[in-house]
Amino acid sequence: MILGTPMPTVPYVKPLSSEQKELIHRLVYFQDQYEAPSEKDMKRLTINNQNMDEYDEEKQSDTTYRIITEMTILTVQLIVEFAKRLPGFDKLVREDQITLLKACSSEAMMFRVARKYDITTDSIVFANNQPFSADSYNKAGLGDAAIENQLSFSRFMYNMKVDNAEYALLTAIVIFSSRPNLLDGWKVEKIQEIYLESLKAYVDNRDRDTATVRYARLLSVLTELRTLGNENSELCMTLKLKNRVVPPFLAEIWDVMP
């Protein structure tokens, strides 16, 4: 080093506040707690996936479809339970709580799918440890562009190495997103700001060299989620045209017209 040359300055990064640390800790805890269905819930499934090979092609398609829809119901129920425990959710009026839950469920589900993505098989591993690839969705009559985009999104999240804290914060940000017909939209935005600031602080402290780029990429995910959520709604309508039964719980929460 040449004498007289000033030392390069290391940009100051504000550490996470104690409140932000506690918030992230709670989010990760609840995310883990509502990560997978209970053994009791799994036993309620009407179809045992291990017996799929016993059916002919048509019955196998119906069986695969029922497995996917039943697992989707359990996943959405877990998302609802997670959302109810988020700091700030209980401060909203019941009408806004319902609006947020219905609007966020399909988007938040994409995060759950991405967390279950297996790169070696390019598939989603369900709670029963059964991998479901694009071919599996094809057999169930679900193999359209929406599924391919969902897998592509999962690969993107995998390659970004999104960790548990980032997933939890992103899910909270999605839940507290501005939606049509909110009575207290300003309050939802204020709550979301807390989670956005916590995510920014977390990313800044996780990797200072790439924090700005990483934070921007994580936020870009939210736009992609809106697209995937819309595709999910379109898929549900397509299923009805194909005379596939959309379970009442999903039809209600996703506003699938009868």
Label this structure with key terms:
three-stranded antiparallel beta sheet, Retinoid X Receptor, 258 residues, mainly alpha
Distance between the termini: 74 Å
Helix/strand-derived category reads: mainly alpha
Q: Biggest β-sheet, characterized?
A: 3 strands, antiparallel
Estimated radius of gyration? 21 Å
Looking at CATH, the homologous superfamily is Retinoid X Receptor
Strand order of the largest sheet: 1-2-3
- CATH topology heading: Retinoid X Receptor
Strand residues, percent:
under 5%
Question: How many discrete domains?
Answer: 1
What are the segments in which pLDDT stays under 50 over at least 5 consecutive residues? none
Could you tell me the mean pLDDT?
86
Q: Label the CATH architecture.
A: Orthogonal Bundle
Give the SSE string. HHHHEEEHHHHHH
Count of helical regions? 10
Number of strands: 3
Q: Using the alpha-carbon principal axes, give the shape.
A: globular
CATH top level class name: Mainly Alpha
**Helix share bin:** 55-70%
Report what the structure shows.
- There is one protein chain.
- The chain has 258 residues and is mainly alpha-helical.
- The chain has helices at residues 18-33, 39-43, 57-84, 94-115, 134-139, 145-160, 164-175, 185-206, 211-241, 248-253; strands at 117-118, 123-125, 131-132.
- It has one domain (18-39, 48-253): Retinoid X Receptor (Orthogonal Bundle), CATH 1.10.565.10.
- It has ten helices and three strands; from the N terminus they run ααααβββαααααα.
- Strands 1-2-3 form a three-stranded antiparallel beta sheet.
- β2 (123-125) and β3 (131-132) form a beta hairpin.
